[in-house]
Specification:
GO molecular function: lipase activity; metal ion binding
Largest sheet: 10 strands, mixed
Number of helices: 21
Domain Fungal lipase-type: 439-566
Cofactor: Ca(2+)
CATH topology of the largest domain: Rossmann fold
Transmembrane segments: 20-42, 54-81, 101-122, 134-157
Organism: Adineta steineri
Strand content: 5-15%
CATH class of the largest domain: Alpha Beta
């Protein structure tokens, strides 16, 4: 900070961001320069047969330009290390000039290598083997570095002035989240996202780049680790609420489908898939449905029948009778099939081989538009599909759900795996043990889900029981989609299960959607309850959040950053980052390396519990007074303040924890939303949002509560 300006354009990197790129440039070119010098000394002693044009037109100029590039890169590296991120940028005032000189050297390097390419074509056979290899190596390295440099400049250029600020953010969203394709959402939703991003990042008071944000977070992490932070325990969380949270956590996490399976077996998932593909089938459908009606008795190593069906499709013109197929592939073995061709009156033995140039695009298309899982409509048999499982043509997601819920053994009544902007996949199951109808909603898994997350402006939520309030716009869209999809279906379900109650659960984004959906269903189903695991910090306005405490339960582990994420907390974090950068007296590289490593290895007790209201005044975060004043007095904001809904169960650690802490002891308390209005920048702020953290914390709290009750 501030960003670099070149050719009258702003680029999204700062003058102190060029240390590592310059070092990489030096590391790649310096060994090659040494090789050039050694080669030249040996070449003079051995009477080279290369023409003089090689030395005059290519070798000597290349040697000079390499020395020049190494010198200018060394100067850039040295200058980039000077000063501080904000307060002392004077030592880096000539960085733009150095970059211009470096670009000139790049152009000269390109010209010299073009000349070298011409010389190679003319006298390639004349020069000795080593000379030819050195020329080719030099051209390849120079071309890679030059292309990389121009690509980086193209990526980091700021288009302000060329397009409007709104269009700039819209282009970024389309490029990052949908690879330039249409994102499938309403233009008003995209405008809401653009408006939010502009509010947070487009401010004339500061000029932040990505490395500044990273540096600021490390500085805040160092500050927050030393903070003595207390929590006001209104009351300890009842054991039954924690047990219910752990029970429905399984349903919430199972909505992730194959990703939950991959996370559950994260150390062995790839070997398991490879094993299945190696010993069961060659195709992508790895025994995903397991229905015997899909299998053909004359098709070996094809449990889903996908290979047999593929053969029928490939031979649809000839229409032979497939007599036998063996799809076992191994070392010294080859898959094959035998078919009878009635037209030619021949018996054919062959191996399928088609669509080799377009197979991957076809598979990607199927994955994009037909199913979320790995089984991409590969078998096409209606027996694999379930009529109550939408956007799951192979039934793989349905079977994955059954496997993930094998302990609870619920009856899966309906599933909709359609994931898009403003939509969330979900399923409905009947739990016979708890006598509940469960709606489980998937959390963030795709780029479109992230768009739903950051569509964080407030929507008006009209309710019959609690009056009008506001809610998260993206979550509201997903909740309305689910409500419209299952309202009629739920009536039929409760006719079949009259003694059952309704439970809605979800994880992360799914938890926020579940909270809003439970409000929409509350008037129809008064017995509804919502269990939000890893509940986001920006879901409902204060009046609705407080009114739903008797049926919405929000679970938060320790310093989970998503539970503290909102437009207001992000704005507060931005202001804290700017303040930390202003006070920083070290260069950016030192902060990003030594300070970061020291901070990661520290283990601190994050929270100290307190029971009395008299000491509550000492529990506030020790922040810069001006920043605190900005946050506390910023009532003129155009955004409604959204908070965590319902009863908040905070699962906090009672041990010193760090990034590499494997085991911690947890306690649970009923907390207030005021405890989650600001980010705690901690090494575990992201890891505490992971599914394993919630499963471990909930189980540990139950164990501790049981142990304390028996004492």
């Amino acid at each position: 900070m501030p960003s670099i300006h070149l050719f009258n354009r702003r680029f999204n990197f700062a003058s102190d961001d060029l240390t590592l790129p310059s070092l990489i440039d030096i590391i790649l070119r310096f060994p090659l320069l040494i090789i050039f010098i050694i080669y030249h000394l040996n070449d003079k002693l051995s009477n080279s047969i290369c023409s003089s044009s090689f030395y005059i037109g290519y070798f000597y100029p290349l040697l000079i330009i390499y020395i020049g590039i190494i010198i200018i890169s060394s100067i850039i590296c040295f200058v980039s290390l000077q000063g501080t991120p904000v307060n002392n940028i004077y030592p880096r005032r000539h960085m733009s000039l150095l970059i211009y000189i470096r670009l000139i050297f790049v152009l000269i390097d390109i010209i010299i290598n073009i000349i070298g390419l011409i010389i190679i074509l003319k006298s390639f056979e004349i020069c000795e083997f080593l000379s030819r290899r050195i020329m080719i190596l030099s051209i390849i390295i120079s071309a890679i570095l030059a292309i990389s440099l121009f690509i980086i400049l193209a990526i980091f250029i700021d288009l302000t002035g060329v397009v409007s600020a709104e269009k700039k953010w819209e282009m970024r969203i389309k490029f990052i989240f949908s690879c330039g394709r249409s994102y499938g959402g309403q233009s008003s939703d995209i405008q809401n996202i653009v408006k939010t991003l502009q509010y947070l990042f487009d401010d004339e008071r500061f000029d932040l780049v990505a490395s500044d944000v990273a540096t600021g977070l490390i500085l805040l992490q160092q500050e927050d680790l030393l903070e003595e932070r207390s929590i006001d325990i209104i009351e300890s969380a009842p054991l039954n609420i924690v047990q219910e949270g752990l029970y429905y956590n399984s349903y919430a996490q199972s909505a992730f489908g194959w990703f939950s399976l991959a996370y559950q077996y994260r150390m062995t998932f790839i070997p398991r898939i490879l094993f299945a593909m190696r010993y069961r089938t060659i195709g992508l459908c790895c025994c995903c449905c397991g229905l015997t009606c899909c299998q053909n008795p004359d098709s070996l190593y094809d449990p889903c029948g996908s290979q047999y069906t593929t053969l029928q499709y490939l031979l649809r013109k000839q229409k032979p009778i497939i007599l036998y197929a063996n799809f076992f592939g191994a070392f010294g073995r080859a898959p094959f099939y035998i078919a009878a061709d009635n037209e030619k009156k021949t018996i054919i033995i062959s191996i399928p081989y088609q669509y080799r140039m377009t197979f991957i695009p076809r598979i990607l298309f199927a994955m994009r538009y037909r199913t979320i899982g790995l089984c991409c409509c590969c078998c096409g048999l209606t027996c694999c599909q379930n009529p109550d499982s939408l956007y799951d043509p192979c039934g793989s997601q349905y079977k994955t759900l059954q496997y993930l819920l094998r302990k609870q053994k619920p009856i899966i009544l309906y599933a909709n795996f359609f994931g898009a902007f403003g939509r969330a996949p979900f399923y409905i199951a009947a739990d016979n043990e708890k006598k509940t109808i469960i709606i489980s909603i998937r959390g963030t898994l795709s780029a479109m889900d992230i768009l739903t997350d950051i569509n964080a402006v407030e929507d008006i939520l009209e309710t019959e029981l609690f009056g009008n309030g506001h809610c998260h716009s993206g979550m509201h869209s997903a909740a309305k989609y689910i409500h419209n999809d299952i309202s009629t279906r739920l009536v039929d379900i409760f006719v079949k299960y009259p003694d059952y109650t309704l439970v809605i659960c979800g994880y992360s984004l799914g938890a926020g959607v579940a909270a809003i959906l439970s409000i929409l269903f509350k008037s129809t189903y008064p017995h509804v309850k919502c269990y939000g695991i890893a509940m986001p910090g920006s879901v409902l306005s204060e009046n609705l959040a407080l009114a739903t405490r008797d049926f919405i339960y929000s679970y938060v582990v320790d310093v989970d950053m998503i539970a503290r994420a909102s437009i207001h907390s992000l704005k507060h974090l931005r202001d804290r980052i700017i303040d930390a950068l202003n006070k920083c007296n070290r260069n950016k590289l030192r902060v990003l390396t030594t300070t970061f490593i020291r901070t990661l290895t520290k283990r601190r007790l994050v929270f100290h519990s307190m029971m009395s209201e008299s000491t509550l005044t000492n529990t506030s975060l020790d922040m810069n007074s001006t920043i605190s004043q900005i946050v506390s007095t910023d009532h003129s904001s155009e955004y409604e303040r959204l908070i965590i809904p319902g009863t908040i169960i905070h699962l906090y650690s009672t041990d010193r924890v760090g990034l590499f802490t494997r085991k911690a002891s947890y306690r649970a308390c009923i907390s207030t939303y005021n405890q989650f209005t600001q980010f705690i920048v901690h090494p575990r702020m992201w890891f505490d949002h992971f599914p394993a953290s919630y499963s471990t914390a909930l189980a540990d709290v139950i164990e501790n509560l049981n142990n304390s009750s028996t004492v």
